[in-house]
Amino acid sequence: MFMPLYILSLEMIIEENRPHLFVLTVAVSAMCWMYFFYMEALAVAIYGVLRVLLLYRKELFKGIKLLFIILSYAIFGVLMAAIILLPVILAYTSDSRLAIQRSIPLLYPAFFYERLFTVFVANDFPYDLYMGFASATLFCIAVLFKEFKKHILLVLIFVLGFICVCLPIGGKIFNGFSYVSQRWSFVIALPVAYTTALFWDELQKKKKYLLAILGAMILLALYSAWSRTLRGLLPVGLAVVFYLIIVFGKEKTIGRLQLKQAAMILVIIINILFIYTYNLSEKGGNVINDLLGVQGAKELLSSHEAAMMKEYYEKEDDFFRYDGNHFTNNDAMSSGVNSVNYYWSITNPYDQKFRILLGIRDRLNWQLNGYDQRDVLDTLANVRYYILREGYDDTVPEGFSYREDNGRYRIYENDYFLPFGSTFEKAVSYEDWYDLNSVEKQELLLDAVVIENGTDVWKNTVSLLDYEVSSSDNVHFSKGSIIVEEKNGTITLKPKEDVKQLYLSIDGLEYIDDRGIIEDDHTVAVLKIYNGREDPYYLYHMTLSHRYNFNKHDYVTYLGDETKEITISFSLPGIYTYEDIYLSVIDRNDYVEKISALSDEHLEDVVFGNNKVSGRISLKSDKYMLLSIPYSKGWKAYVDGKETAVLKADEHYLALPLKAGEHQVELVYMTPGLKAGAVISSLAAIIYIASLFKRRRGV
Length: 699
Fold this sequence. Notes:
With 699 residues, the chain is of the alpha+beta class.
């Protein structure tokens, strides 16, 4: 990270008025990774304000003036990085996670505070809090606080750091006001290292004081169950050895080697190596098993679903995607094929809203795993193949036929594959579409595109199915509320008739934990839905206090055919409230005709280039062409060389209004903010280089 450079360059401004290293540090760190740049910039800003105000506490106006000068240098560095930073900021500020209003509790759960000591000396990591410092550094920090009047700035840094670590609001602020995370805690490493170096020699003079500190460390280690393990006890044992060396070690020298100092350093090295190896071990997380050699990585890549799909892409000329179960995150991207799996921190907000409106059972809003075996959504996404990993009894979307089995995966092909750039005659308004339930929204998408000024009326093809409800003895079911007294309590829905294409919808689901437990990293209300299959469907619902909650309350589960009854198991006791639970039946008598009509006139001779898509189309009448590309304001479309409107369709796709006739279509993408960022960076770089020449000439 850039923290040492930041502090050094900031001191060069304060002491010598030399800003160039600071400007370059800001620019380079901002271009490397905006996420950690934000954390570092916030930490450095706090340090800079404290440093200057303490230095100029008797000349406050002068200090404030210096802070504004430093701020101007920082802004200049940011402007130099605008070519990368501006597009990232625009993407981040439009990300769906940023707009979510989460309930932030005043304090973490009790276990978090019980683990703090272990976190410091052994790198336990609740809420992404990573530390793992040698236990001997605690002696130096203790000496710092004993002599706090001489080192007020350093003490304030530790106090503020401790407050931010202990309060969830600190984790939210340092994580860009998104969810609570302590990933910023790496900035604490620098003051810890500096304090250790500063008070290393002072340790010899504070033996009695250090004994009290050692006693406190031993009590902390024994108090918490988190510390009463090898992870926590061995660092404390090394702290005892470190203290004994301080007290009883003799100042002997062999050549240039000072034995006592060497012994103290050796203990710290052993401590660091233990932390590192323990985290790799089976007890500490078994990270070592995730490491692969070159050959192992090649074998892994060649055995995943994307590698298998590559063979199909070599045989097929048309653009298509594949869906399936148990994806390897972003494997399609690394293999050069197209899937409906996605995993990344920043997501398309329109795609996220679509998935929420359609009730797709995503566990995380930055990890997208297909369309829950829902045939309409797969077909509209141009999914041609569905892949099932062996050993899992998963439902296959309706209309997908078995093709082959290679011993690791079973492949199914979409009988009603829809080519890229299909066309619709009708357009429905968002106002009308929003009034429908999740399953109705899905079915409408087969008949019309949904756009801002749509005028057509949709004929509903979805009907509701009556059912009877029963529950286990530990569950009380009533309208709008389900009270679960013990974990894994169940309710059972029994449809009054046998049907195909059955969907279970739960709208407005909320979980109220009447035991008052605040959610941690791993606690989430899990609903298991059984309909005769060996493996259940999983529905993960996060409470308002869960840091990964993304305001999802509506869920749809496709149950397939021949469902006699549906059993829902609740993993956690408590009160589950809901707006409605209903079963939907789909009328698919004219499904084939609808798909045929959509694919009859579509984009042909499609060419995908870097940030560009082109093709030709011939239409007998005016239509809307739907493109399964996530909507973004960065897209521009040209029809026969003339720019035309790019519509946001179906909440998350692109659509073009086209007149009857033959057309050449081209779509070009420019990352929002890239041009403006390039201009800003260029101007800032020119000014910076000019200032260097000016300073060199002494002008």
